Amino acid sequence: MAKRETAMIIYIDTPFKEEQKTLLRSTLKADELIFKDELPSDDERLSSLLKADILLGNPKPVDWLQQAQNLKWLQLYSTGFEYYSGVKIPAVVTNMKAYYAQPCAETIVAGIMALYRGIDKYDTLKSQGRWVGYQAREKLQLLFQKKVIILGAGGIAKHLGNILSGFDCGVTFFARSAGEATLHTIEDLEKAIPDADIIIGTLPGTKETAGLFTTAMINKMNADALFCNIGRGNLVEDEAVLIDALITGKIGGAVLDVTAREPIPEGHPLWDCPNTILTQHSGGGSTTEYDGIAAFFLENLERFKQGNRLKNVVDLAKGY
Amino acid sequence: MAKRETAMIIYIDTPFKEEQKTLLRSTLKADELIFKDELPSDDERLSSLLKADILLGNPKPVDWLQQAQNLKWLQLYSTGFEYYSGVKIPAVVTNMKAYYAQPCAETIVAGIMALYRGIDKYDTLKSQGRWVGYQAREKLQLLFQKKVIILGAGGIAKHLGNILSGFDCGVTFFARSAGEATLHTIEDLEKAIPDADIIIGTLPGTKETAGLFTTAMINKMNADALFCNIGRGNLVEDEAVLIDALITGKIGGAVLDVTAREPIPEGHPLWDCPNTILTQHSGGGSTTEYDGIAAFFLENLERFKQGNRLKNVVDLAKGY
């Protein structure tokens, strides 16, 4: 890439607060920064997006993006980008790759430990001001030395592996070809499921992963086993089967950051599933989430201006 | 110790279920087993206790135990035994030592992660069937690389250290002389507190530990820091100060398995403390808790009968 000395028009469609805006404004004095949430109308949003050289964020709708013929670089603020699958733009696209991996891994482990150590039940008792004490002890479980299958071998999977090593868990990865995976085919996975205490989906949303966790697999899970999902909700072939397994106690519980429908609608049966933690697609969140996005963008922008290769380039067609 | 061939009278004051009773009865056919919960009156309980050679459990009241002149061995089912402090009996006393260390460590980490990842708040939202989604993300924190002070260097502290290594935490131990501790005096501890993200009490209940965590220390904690206690409730010099710090947001939160008063009375201000997880002295619990106690007792009983030294001998006067 050639070095770019000219001022850039940067359109920002990311829910930044004043502190991140101030940082960007003070760092990028020569460039024109346009924050979507400061524009009064859709007309102005569209015309600003169309003249932008660079776009930071996940713009909607897709057809606006497809008209952005001036765009040279799109920096997404997410890791996943299946919403843009197949979109053709003349710009390089980058994502946040493993940025959310540690928070996502922590949310899943927090959910598992809450179920195992009764934190959800003690929280309800606290709201009632009610002591049960010893009665509750005999239902508590340990994460120590549990057998865990992780679907996927990317960033979240690696961070989960690090955390679970502190609990001496036996961790097995399912992935087509990744080096650390020992389960490569659907048949391998089906054979391993009956022995697993915990199954954690970390897979991105692609054609190959949609419906990968089948009804047959849910039926093979043991009665104490937990199903967790921090990848994409459409990993589960039929969510109604999962819900039924939770309600009837065919499986031990679930920790779901992602679900077939998001937001989960009012009155949806998931809200009433026992032994289930619903973290509302917050897994990647943290107090420093937007600071980190702004910092990464500035770093990648420096590469862009110097004509160097950008970090985290992805292919919208391939899905990774 | 001499080998004992004669049948023993074993009095059992431990809340076993039928499965553990069956195991003990089938293993110890030659001995006389008396289960306290099967006796109809206090008179029978006292007379059975007084004729026992061996006692498994934590008998109350203390003066019954002091009359048990036939007793040769008392196997407690707990780790702590401050209730028996200074009791004089002619028998060897053993406890469960580090048996509860892993479950206790897991309960504290589960509570910390629940606060950091919002699990308590998502649980409340689930009970209301209410989606907030992204709004909740910016308040979430990470356990990754947090600075942790652990008060104590015994079993729970070691297991906490193992778990926290998976989160790349910086862990510092406070103990008078233990090798892994770097904080030895109250002054060392006071100096370290302002930098800590998490402080975890794991100390047993002795004269030295009562009130060790002072009001001055609470006042030195930073505004995001968590106070956790899995040792004994009387570690905190003045629980009202801790409660005030939680209500006013002077500290970030608390995970309390133990408290000054247990059970926590109805209407007690602890029930209404924000960012607080109360696990009701269940930290040691697990589905296999009583199986493990029965198995350890049988193992130690074999040593007793063979005249070998018992495992986990403690000194009621010294408190360890």
Q: How much strand content do the residues of chain A show? A: 5-15%
Number of helices of chain A: 10
**Largest sheet of chain A, described in full?**
6 strands, mixed
Contiguous low-pLDDT stretches of chain A (5 residues minimum) are none
Assembly classification: homodimer
Rg of chain A to the nearest angstrom? 22 Å
Structural class of the helix and strand makeup of chain A?
A: alpha/beta
Q: Count the beta strands of chain A.
A: 12
**Residue share in helices of chain A?**
25-40%
CATH superfamily of the largest domain in chain A: NAD(P)-binding Rossmann-like Domain
The CATH architecture of the largest domain in chain A: 3-Layer(aba) Sandwich
The CATH topology name of the largest domain in chain A reads Rossmann fold
Mean pLDDT of chain A: 95
In the CATH scheme, the class of the largest domain in chain A would be Alpha Beta
Report strand order across the widest sheet of chain A. 2-1-3-4-5-12
What is the string of helix and strand elements of chain A? Answer: EHEHEHEEHHEHEHEHEHEEHE
Largest interface: A-B, 63 and 63 residues
**How many angstroms does the end-to-end distance of chain A come to?**
22 Å
Number of domain modules of chain A = 2
Q: How would you describe this protein?
A:
The structure is a homodimer of 320-residue chains. Chain A has 320 residues and is of the alpha/beta class. The first copy, chain A, is 32% helix and 14% strand. The first copy, chain A, folds into two domains: 120 residues, NAD(P)-binding Rossmann-like Domain (Rossmann fold, 3-Layer(aba) Sandwich), CATH 3.40.50; 179 residues, NAD(P)-binding Rossmann-like Domain (Rossmann fold). In chain A, the strands form two sheets. Chain A has a six-stranded mixed sheet with strand order 2-1-3-4-5-12, with helices on both faces. In chain A, strands 7-6-8-9-10-11 form a six-stranded parallel sheet, with helices on both faces. In chain A, α8 links the parallel β8 and β9. Chain A is elongated and about 65 Å long. At the A-B interface, α4, α5, α6 and β11 of A face α4, α5, α6 and β11 of B. Chains A, B: It comes from Mucilaginibacter ginkgonis.
